[in-house]
TrEMBL record:
InterPro entries: Flavin_Rdtase-like_dom, Flavoredoxin, Split_barrel_FMN-bd. Pfam families: Flavin_Reduct. PANTHER family: FLAVOREDOXIN-RELATED-RELATED, HYPOTHETICAL CYTOSOLIC PROTEIN. This is Flavin reductase like domain-containing protein. Residues 16-165 form the Flavin reductase like domain. Gene3D superfamilies: Electron Transport, Fmn-binding Protein, Chain A.
Length: 166
């Protein structure tokens, strides 16, 4: 993997997040979990390159994301959709996702987990988190579609991209 400066990323993240999906991974090499997600984005906030992601509290990865200051995001390419299917449909509470998917974990200098298969990986330091509030929506249809019958509201994390690899 080649390290690149976050501000040099030229990816079409609209396409990457929506169709390629990502793995959100939190924890350390001894104990971590990863999950598939596709809600999020990248931008510039507080004079920093940032990513924002959304995780529901019932997801096992949420526990790790809450406990640690960092998480990683790995984009594996379209050819790894089978990995995303497993990591998005099974819980790490009762499934060894690494064994089942064949993912090859690597530990970063900061102690976070990324994967050898990542075509683009971002290491992120949490800056802000907030529970999505149903009463703050301007469009009530979004609440009905995503939160009335589908579980707890997501927690949104805004995190500084501190390292990036291609």
């Amino acid at each position: 993997m080649e390290r690149i400066e976050p501000n040099k990323l030229t990816e079409n993240f609209f396409e990457t997040f929506s169709s390629e999906w990502m793995l959100i991974t939190a924890g350390d090499k001894e104990h971590f979990n990863t999950m598939t997600a596709n809600w999020g984005g990248i931008g510039y906030l507080w004079n920093k390159p940032v990513v924002f992601i959304f995780v529901r509290p019932e997801r096992y990865t949420f526990e790790f994301t809450e406990k640690k200051d960092y998480f990683t995001i790995s984009f594996l390419g379209e050819e790894n959709k089978d990995v995303h299917k497993i990591c998005g449909s099974k819980s790490g509470r009762d499934t060894d996702k690494i064994e089942e998917t064949g993912l090859k974990p690597i530990t970063t200098e900061l102690g976070n987990v990324i994967f050898e298969q990542g075509r683009l990986t971002l290491e992120c330091k949490k800056l802000y988190s907030e529970v999505i509030k149903k009463e703050s929506f301007m469009d009530a249809e979004l609440v009905e579609k995503w939160y009335t019958h589908k579980g707890n509201p997501h927690v949104m994390y805004v995190a500084e991209i501190v390292n990036a690899w291609k």
